[in-house]
Amino acid sequence: MFEKILIANRGEIACRVIKTARKMGIKTVAIYSDADKQALHVQMADEAVHIGPPPANQSYIVIDKVMEAIRSTGAQAVHPGYGFLSENSKFAEALAAEGVAFVGPPVGAIEKMGDKITSKKIAQDAGVSTVPGHMGLIEDADEAVKISNEIGYPVMLKASAGGGGKGMRIAWNDEEAREGFQSSKNEAANSFGDDRIFIEKFVTQPRHIEIQVLCDAHGNGIYLGERECSIQRRQQKVVEEAPSPFLDEATRKAMGEQAVALAQAVDYASAGTVEFIVDGDKNFYFLEMNTRLQVEHPVTELITGVDLVEQMIRVANGEPLSISQDDVQLNGWAIENRLYAEDPYRGFLPSIGRLTRYRPPAEQAAGLMLANGKWQGDAPEGSFAVRNDTGVYEGGEISMYYDPMIAKLCTWAPTRDEAIEAMRNALDGFEVEGIGHNLPFLSAVMDHPIFIEGTMTTAFIEEQYPEGFTGVELPEAELRRIAASAAAMHRVAEIRRTRVSGRMDNHERRVGTEWVVSLQGQDFAVSIEADQLGSTVVFKDGGQTRLASKWTPGDQLAKLDVDGSPLVLKVGKISGGFRIRARGADLKVHVRTPRQAELAQLMPEKVAPDTSKLLLCPMPGLIVKVDVEVGQEVEEGQALCTVEAMKMENILRAEKKGVIAKINASAGDSLAVDDVIMEFEG
Fold it and tell me: Which of 89, 179, 219, 243 is least surrounded by Cβ atoms within 10 Å, i.e. has the fewest?
């Protein structure tokens, strides 16, 4: 077995590989850019080598710099993670020339299947059904428009190299095809050093389901079930689960066998993923093969008990698979939510900054023993598991130079409903402050009827949130639980305040029992009866709620038992009450005496400033280009400028017809959130 492995990556996947290598007794080497000097993967590894400036095209994807790090540390093998150089055949060739093992497939398999155009041709030759498209490379925007018209809109413009949603655009007309072609080329060049683009038909209302395969160099190949990855935004996966709530055993078997056959056709040896589009009749069509470890691999590990990173390392060491297809058992259900450094209230635009608070929920196993991928017995009733794969820590900084994903929160339980409920509670208990993040949105998805039913397609986010995410309106039953909790917590805080030392001798503060709780536009009049075991909150309409909690003033996380069910709230202090976040809602909760509540009704509401005549920068980023000039008349939807952040180009468009009065920024300028880019005439 290898004695030392270098991880040619960063962030959570580098940390993930280090954990398995440490379990196997293998020493690890991390590489890092200037921006990652204090990163978690650098702290976890046995050694770390600096490889250059923050931009990936000057550090993490520069093969010569990575090779020098390998030579200087004597690493015998390299795990590439995902992204960066993971599907770069030239990197694999450089390692082979140096006598260093690549923890991934052979060069030939990378070249044949890693390139989306080549892989589709191979799939077609093998009789695999594929989505209609233009398999040749596209030279310029005019050709892109011509081909798009021949295929028929809508079409998908995709980078030939890489993945992760980079270099991908959907076009519904000629203008979008022209714009999308150039943005896709730019993103592909910046992310992968390869700007080749191809076009295929965009199949509406599809489900995205992928098969995990595992092959060795001795001719053995197996599949480890499927992953449902249909909930996507901008072609980037947000929520994944295993197994799929849509597939039956016959379809799973057919997809799995086809995936293995495709892998073995190119002498594949490692972990890999074959992605399919599946329609409503369970017809499936080959999309592409990812010749690397997938971001969402933990859900497969949770339902099979197979450590995919360990298997990749063993295959790279020349070992045959120790697991046969008959050994693969799918046990229970697993769900993964990707925590992104992006603001859902600003159109999911990237958010950077320092993590002033980062407290993931406690990880826990389900209590099942595994051996060679086999489950030992059934899960005890009510058992569940929580796993959080992360690459950050409290006090660390989220950089503008890399992908905005900062953690992958996973839950496992015996059934899908139980796994969803475990995820809801885990999300409620995940504390993140200092940056914009998508935790509220993830919570909203977990409670969405379509997700609960398992009937989602890849159009889920676009269809269910057409105007973007504006928060969650909680049902009254949930509001009553939160109102009762807030009243009980307010009472505890009031009692604390009565015990402050140094008060005047002739003044004694009494804590009342009658309160009015205001949240989400509703008022709940309640009274509280407390005892040593908790509190009973009685609503004006006669309803009662029983609460128990160890919360004390100052705690930012409240874990309560409400009528026998758990409730987890993120709690912040505001004047006269709390800021409470739960189940995707961000609530200002005021707890007042009846007289205070009466007077509060007379207070005028603060009016937000008018920014309708300004184009504000929605996130920290770099102005790539400005498409208009002063005095120009623009139409609704017209492109005004392009802002790049975290390797993604974002085109800002006019919300309505108007005339440009002033432009405050030009190409190359770095802007902060809400900086004024341009102004419109009144």
Answer: 219
Q: Of 186, 200, 95, nearest to 144 (Cα)?
A: 200
Q: How far from the centroid of its chain's Cα atoms is residue 356's Cα?
A: 20
- Show Cβ contacts of residue 469 under 8 Å, excluding neighbours closer than 6 positions: 344, 345, 348, 440, 441, 444
| Residue 169 to residue 181: CA distance in whole angstroms | 8
Distance CA 600, CA 140 (A): 62
Among candidate residues 111, 176, 187, 288, the one labeled active-site is 288
288 is catalytic: yes
How many Å separate Cα 100 from the centre of its chain? 33
pLDDT of residue 508: 60
Buried b / exposed e over 461-480, threshold 16 CB at 10 Å, is beebbeeebeebebeeebbb
Q: How far is CA 65 from CA 57, 162, 216, 277, 582, in A?
A: 11, 20, 29, 38, 46
Q: Read off φ and ψ for residue 663, nearest 5 degrees.
A: -120, 120
Query: In which residue ranges of the chain is pLDDT below 70?
Result: 135, 162-165, 366-381, 499-509, 647
CA atoms within 13 A of residue 154's CA, in its CB half-sphere:
11
pLDDT at 331: 93
Residues 103, 78: contact at Cβ < 8 Å?
yes
Residue pair 337/364 in contact (Cβ under 8 Å)? The answer is: no
Burial class of residue 100, CB neighbours in 10 A (0-12, 13-18, 19+): buried
Question: Which amino acid is located at 570 in the chain?
Answer: K
Within 13 A of 561's CA, how many CA atoms are on the CB side? 7
Helix, coil or strand: residue 587: strand
- Give me the pLDDT at residue 175, please: 93
pLDDT of the residue at 143: 93
Q: What is the pLDDT of residue 188?
A: 84
C-alpha to C-alpha distance for 16 and 94, rounded to whole angstroms? 24
What's the pLDDT score for residue 410? Answer: 97
Q: Which residues pair with 650 in a beta bridge?
A: 643
Written as six digits, the tokens of 547 are 């609460």
- Quick one: tokens of 440? 């509220």
CA distance linking residue 619 with residue 349, whole number of Å = 6
164 near 112, Cβ under 8 Å?
no
236: which strand partners?
233
pLDDT of 21 reads: 98
Q: Please count the CA atoms within 13 angstroms of the CA of 201 that sit on its side-chain side.
A: 14
Amino acid code (one letter) for 177: A
Q: What six digits make up the tokens of 327?
A: 């050994």
What's the pLDDT at 369? 44
The reported pLDDT for the residue numbered 257 is: 94
Output the pLDDT for position 500: 63
